[in-house]
């Protein structure tokens, strides 16, 4: 399914009858409706960030539902697409926090390749229908992924923006990990505590303290 060590970590799930039946539903959705991201990108986050390399997890809710936007990474859009408002605010906070100038596109692949798992809780969505695949069954898989990461021997930073992401903190019980929470970066909530939360410097400080390579944001 993935092409790296996630296949081994998730073999019990992928080979189970429950997942096979669920994935038939996903296949039917793609065959009968316009679903995002493109099918080849569903597991892009796992493909770009092998289990052994995960140092940071940024939890999102579900993919963008507009044409050519989603490509399997939370908060990220494909090059050539207008940078969404939440990501604009993420870039603003990154600049205020570390002085990193905003990128001219919204593709966060460069983060993923450094060990930042950009994981949406729901991995697919119907065109123009946000949260349409909530409770389809993806949450069982992605919650299990968070539990697997909780079991990692190396420390991991979990960045949880907004109440939905914060609800995943109950899955992160290993005291060696760092959980960073704040309001969501959306224009509706960013000014209530996302701005000024300094998640990027906090992440790198923690990684350095634990003798891990910091992220070049």
Give a brief description.
This protein has 217 residues and is of the alpha/beta class. 35% of the residues lie in helices and 11% in strands. It contains nine helices and six strands.
Report the biggest beta sheet as strand number plus sense, adding barrel if it closes: 4 strands, parallel
Point out poorly predicted stretches.
Answer: none
Strand order of the largest sheet: 3-2-5-6
How does the overall form come out from the CA principal axes? globular
Strand content: 5-15%
Tell me the radius of gyration: 17 Å
- The proportion of residues forming helix, as a percent range, comes to 25-40%
End-to-end gap: 29 Å
Number of helices: 9
Tell me the total number of β-strands: 6
Derived structural class = alpha/beta
Provide the residue-averaged pLDDT: 97
**Strand-and-helix sequence, N→C?**
HHHEHEHHEEHEHEH
Task: Explain how this protein is built.
- With 217 residues, this protein is α/β, with parallel strands linked by helices.
- Helices cover 35% and strands 11% of the residues.
- The protein has nine helices and six strands; from the N terminus they run H-H-H-E-H-E-H-H-E-E-H-E-H-E-H.
- The protein has helices at 6-9, 11-14, 17-32, 44-48, 85-98, 109-112, 138-150, 162-166, 199-209; strands at residues 35-36, 56-60, 116-120, 125-126, 157-161, 178-182.
- The strands form two sheets. A four-stranded parallel beta sheet has the order 3-2-5-6. A two-stranded antiparallel ribbon has the order 1-4.
- Helix 8 (162-166) links the parallel strand 5 (157-161) and strand 6.
- It is globular, with a radius of gyration of 17 Å.
